[in-house]
Structure formats: C-alpha cells, structure tokens
Amino acid sequence: MEKYDIVIIGAGIAGLTAGLYASRAGKKVAVIEKNVAGGQILSVEKVVNYPGVPDSTGWEISDKVREQAESFGAEIIYDTVREASLADETKILTLDGGTLQARAVILAMGAGPKPLGIERESALAGSGVSYCATCDGAFFKNKDVMVAGAGKTAVEDVNYLAPIVSKVYVVGENNLPAFSQDNVERIEKAKITALSGMPLSSVKLTAASVEREIPVSALFVALGTVPDTAWLGGAVELDGKGYIITDENMATSLKGVFAAGDIRRKELRQLVTAAADGAIAAQAAVKFVKK
Ligand SMILES: Cc1cc2nc3c(=O)[nH]c(=O)nc-3n(C[C@H](O)[C@H](O)[C@H](O)COP(=O)(O)OP(=O)(O)OC[C@H]3O[C@@H](n4cnc5c(N)ncnc54)[C@H](O)[C@@H]3O)c2cc1C
User: Fold this and answer.
1) 137 lines ligand 1 (CB under 6 A)
2) Are residues 104 and 11 in the same domain?
3) Of 119, 160, 185, 197, whose CB has the highest number of CB atoms within 10 Å?
4) Whole domain around residue 57: which residue ranges?
5) How many whole angstroms from 291 Cα to the centroid of ligand 1?
6) Rounded to two decimals, what is the model's pTM?
7) Do 124 and 88 have their domain in common?
8) What's the confidence (pLDDT) of residue 49?
9) Which of 156, 270, 280 to mutate to test the pocket of ligand 1 (most atoms within 8 A of CB)?
10) Ligand 1 center–CA 206 separation, angstroms
11) How far is the CA of 209 from the centre of ligand 1 (A)?
C-alpha cells in the first residue's frame, strides 16, 4: 500500500491548489482525480473574474494550476476514491485501482450538476440529456433544444446555445429572466413531467395548468450544483444540503481531515475562494502531519 503524508481527493482548483501548497512544503502528496484535472471550470469558455487573469478559459486557468502543482512534486493519480476510512490516525482510501494510506486527507470533491430527478433522465444522459451546454451544445447545431433552470447556469447555457441552435426553449418553475435573442422562448411556471424518445425527441411539461409536448433534440439541465458527499457515509459533519462543515482553517469534525472548495459550506463558490480554501487546507494539513 503506497503511503503519503497528505492525500487530496479531487483535482479541481481547490484540490490542485492544496496539492501545490502541500508539495511545496516538502510533503509527499497525491491528488486523486476521477475525471480530468481541473474540475467544473474546465467547460467554462470565458472567465473574467480570476484576479490577475482578466480574460481566459477555464481550461487554461486550471491547466496552469495543474502544471504548477506537479512542478512542486504533487502526484496526480487518475482514479476514483470509492471509500474512505478517516477516523483513525492512519487514513485509508480505497480507489478502483488499489488502496492508499495517508496521515492527513483533504476533501476537495467539489460539486456536480443537480439532476431534474424525473424518470428516464439518467437513461437519456448522453442521448439528448446533457448537464454541460458548452461541452455538448455543438452536437445540436441548427436543432431545437430546451434548457431547464432559471439561475446563473441556465442564463449562461441559453446565451451559449442561442447562436448555435435553431431555437432554445427555456423552462423554469418560477419567473425567468428576459433574453434578447429572437430564437429564445421562455416558458415560466412550468414543470417538466416526462421525457420521450431514445435519443430524446420530446419533452412533456405542464405550464399554468396546461400540458404541452415540445419536440426537441436536447434538454440541457441547468439547475446548479450539489455536493457529492453521500459516499462518505456521514464520516464528517455535513449541513442539511450535504456540504461539509469546516472551521476557518478548513478542519472538519474529524482530526486530520480537511475540506476545501465548493464541497464546503460557504457563501461564495468561485475559483478564487476554491484556491484560497485549498491553500489554507494544505497549510493546516502540513501542520497536522508535523505534530
Ligand atoms: C457554469 C459555471 C460557470 C462558472 N463560472 C465561474 C467564473 O466565471 N468564475 C469563477 O470564479 N467561478 C466560476 N464557477 C465556479 C467554479 O467553477 C467553482 O467554484 C470551482 O471550480 C470549484 O472548484 P473545486 O475544486 O472546489 O471543485 P470542482 O471543480 O468541482 O472539482 C472537484 C473535482 O473532484 C473530482 N472528484 C469528485 N469526487 C471524486 C472522487 N470520489 N474521487 C476522485 N475525484 C473526485 C471531480 O471529478 C472534480 O474534478 C463556475 C461554475 C459553473 C458550474
């Protein structure tokens, strides 16, 4: 079993920054990533609010942070952490490809897209149902598509899709913001009730007590994000929404276990706060393993 001083779960901006700081402090560090290093921001086409980087893509920013972390010696392991035994002094992490041992662990699993929660949604994922307009929008050039959601993610998705597709229906359970594009139709106070076809061919919904079935080639679910902490089995204290509760040094309710980034209960989930959390968690973890 490979032994590390600090193992970080998740190579988003929080996990990569933690990896950068902890390895620069001379610790043996692994960052485990189940997909691509970079996390959520990878698919964002335009980032203008990261300090010192006035205009960039999410991929460019996260790739630089990955390079920086690796240059200080952080080892990025592409695998999924399935189980974590965190209560004892020696922490054991079970990955698909084996088991790792750590003296401190930083939880930086971020957040994933919130599903609609209706029948056939997961069966249609990748066959017309998508959670990432910037990743999949181009597949639906000149087709009619639908965006479900009314918040920031939905607005970004509509603005991204409108120039590419033939028509965008944007569906929200309450009021929707105004859109200036001619090919955007808003359907307010609506609830999506069923998905038809394989791949997706139409979406049924009820709006103001009237049932409609709208033919579309894609449904982009843009309801924001939720933390993926259920698999921790209650090992660390969570809030009612599943976010990890930490103190200001990113310490969780378990000794030697820290959390950073969007997975943590906090007000502002952005790159700059994810990076700051990662640096603080790394410093606290380094102090902890020195004891
Ligand atoms: C559409 C959109 C636009 C945004 N635009 C901006 C913006 O313009 N500016 C800004 O500052 N912020 C923006 N954000 C917010 C920003 O992307 C996040 O706050 C930030 O990326 C969070 O980083 P993180 O490291 O905490 O989590 P994430 O980026 O979610 O990274 C977590 C990583 O952990 C991995 N992981 C999860 N579970 C496991 C496991 N069990 N085993 C191994 N790996 C695992 C995931 O695959 C993922 O790569 C945007 C977010 C979205 C969704």
Assistant:
1) no
2) yes
3) 160
4) 2-112+224-290
5) 31
6) 0.83
7) no
8) 92
9) 270
10) 33
11) 37
Number of domains the chain is built from: 2
Residues 123 and 104 in one domain: no
pLDDT beyond 90 at 84: yes
CA 41 to ligand 1 centroid distance, Å: 6
Distances (CA, A) of 140 to 160, 182, 200, 222: 12, 18, 12, 17
Measured CA to CA, the distance from residue 189 to residue 3 in angstroms comes to 54
**Ligand 1 near 277 CB (within 6 A):** no
Predicted confidence (pLDDT) per residue in 138-177, tens digit: 999 999 999 999 998 899 999 999 999 999 999 999 899 9
Cβ–ligand 1 distance for 113 under 6 Å, the answer no
Q: How many residues belong to the chain?
A: 291
Ligand 1 atom index nearest CA of 10: 34
Name the strand (E) or helix (H) holding 42: none
pLDDT number for residue 147 = 98
DSSP single-letter state for residue 7: E
The verdict on the CB of residue 110 being under 6 Å from ligand 1 is yes
**Residue with CA closest to ligand 1 atom 14:** 270
Q: What is the pLDDT of residues 40-50, one digit of tens each?
A: 898 787 888 99
Of 192, 221, 250, at which residue does a domain stop? 221
CA 43 to chain centre: 10
| Helix intervals (H) in the chain | 13-24, 58-71, 121-124, 133-136, 152-161, 271-290
255 vs 27: CA distance, rounded Å: 18
The pLDDT, as a whole number, for residue 45 is 79
